[in-house]
Automatic annotation (TrEMBL):
Pfam families: SMC_Nse1, zf-RING-like. Keywords: DNA damage, DNA recombination, DNA repair, Metal-binding, Nucleus, Transferase, Ubl conjugation pathway, Zinc, Zinc-finger. It comes from the Eukaryota. InterPro entries: Nse1, Nse1_RING_C4HC3-type, WH-like_DNA-bd_sf, Znf_RING/FYVE/PHD. Residues 286-315 are annotated as: Disordered. This is Non-structural maintenance of chromosomes element 1 homolog. It catalyses: S-ubiquitinyl-[E2 ubiquitin-conjugating enzyme]-L-cysteine + [acceptor protein]-L-lysine = [E2 ubiquitin-conjugating enzyme]-L-cysteine + N(6)-ubiquitinyl-[acceptor protein]-L-lysine.
Length: 315
């Protein structure tokens, strides 16, 4: 590994998640130093970044590290996010680095709600107040909490999990957003970030699709993939036929249906409506371009908050 690649790897270690725009100034600075000539930010191309990442992956693969990438599910320009991940460790142990076992149990309950809640509407997101109240609810699958064996190796065992207070849950959610694991929308829905979808992909499939794979039942699957780009999908469109497993990112539909006079599902050939959604839009109401409300909360919101505070006082 030459000094330039080593320096770029150090940049990823300092900032494990980057977009192309994030990487450009870092790579330009590195090349300016090691090539002993001025390299402008705009001189760094997407192809050059891809070559650096490909070379780095070849070098760090024996160390069980990998730089993975995923396209934005909402940006029409399909912005790519890159993340340095430990390919050998259990995905949830990376989330657990900065959190206690009780907090991780809460995080898992929130993710359960994303993938198993909402009557299988495939919202893949949780409203803020629901996320806070989840802290008091038992997990609908065995709550597996990180423990430590005598030899120091982590193991997953069922343990006594303490419920978090609303204040504690709120701090955990804020930290997950700050750490890049969760995203928070204008409507205050929490969902998995691109980083989380990259790093937790295998864990999500094992956790939520294991039974569906065993039964061979497509309708039981909770983790969805785009028919176009084959990447994981939590925001996009679905086939109107509920029994069909076809899902397509909004950003992939134009290319996928280009030239078709009548859009039809590529799997079951049902008419493709373009109005059957996956993600926050499946919850109903306005989602896109919704301004953040900062005024006095509604009566319903105040009542919900009062009930939540009353629950907190009961602890």
């Amino acid at each position: 590994m030459d000094d330039a690649h080593r320096a770029f790897l150090q940049a990823f270690l300092a900032s494990p998640v980057m977009t192309f725009a994030d990487a450009q100034p870092r790579l330009a600075a590195i090349q300016t130093i090691f090539e002993e000539r001025d390299i402008l930010v705009q001189d760094i191309t997407q192809d050059e970044l891809a070559n650096y990442i490909s070379n780095l992956n070849n070098l760090i693969s024996p160390l069980d590290y990998e730089i993975r990438s995923i396209h934005s599910q909402t940006d029409p320009s399909r912005t790519v996010t890159y993340a340095l991940v430990n390919a050998a460790s259990d995905a949830m142990t990376q989330v657990a680095t900065n959190h206690s076992p009780d907090e991780i149990a809460f995080v898992k309950k929130v993710i359960d709600a994303m993938f198993e809640g909402s009557g299988n509407k495939e919202i893949f997101a949780v409203p803020g107040m629901q996320a806070l109240n989840i802290a008091k609810q038992p997990r609908n699958r065995e709550s597996m909490v990180a423990a430590t064996q005598a030899d120091g190796e982590p193991q997953m065992t069922q343990g006594q999990v303490k419920a978090l207070t609303l204040d504690q849950a709120e701090r955990v959610l804020a930290s997950l957003v700050a750490e890049g694991w969760f995203e928070k929308s204008r409507r205050e829905y929490y969902s998995l970030s691109p980083r989380a979808l990259m790093e937790l992909r295998g864990w999500l499939v094992d956790t939520y699709d294991g039974e569906a794979v065993e039964e061979g039942d497509e309708s039981m699957k909770r983790v969805r993939f785009c028919e176009g780009c084959r990447e994981i999908l939590t925001i996009g469109q679905r086939c109107h036929n509920r029994e069909c497993g076809c899902r397509i990112h909004d950003t992939c539909t134009q290319g996928f249906f280009r030239g078709q006079t009548e859009k039809r599902c590529p799997r079951c050939e049902a008419a493709w409506t373009g109005t059957d959604f996956v993600g926050e839009r499946a919850a109903g109401g306005r989602v896109q371009n919704m301004p953040v409300r900062r005024g006095r909360p509604s009566a319903a919101s105040r009542n919900t908050q009062s009930m939540a505070n009353a629950d907190s006082d009961d602890d």
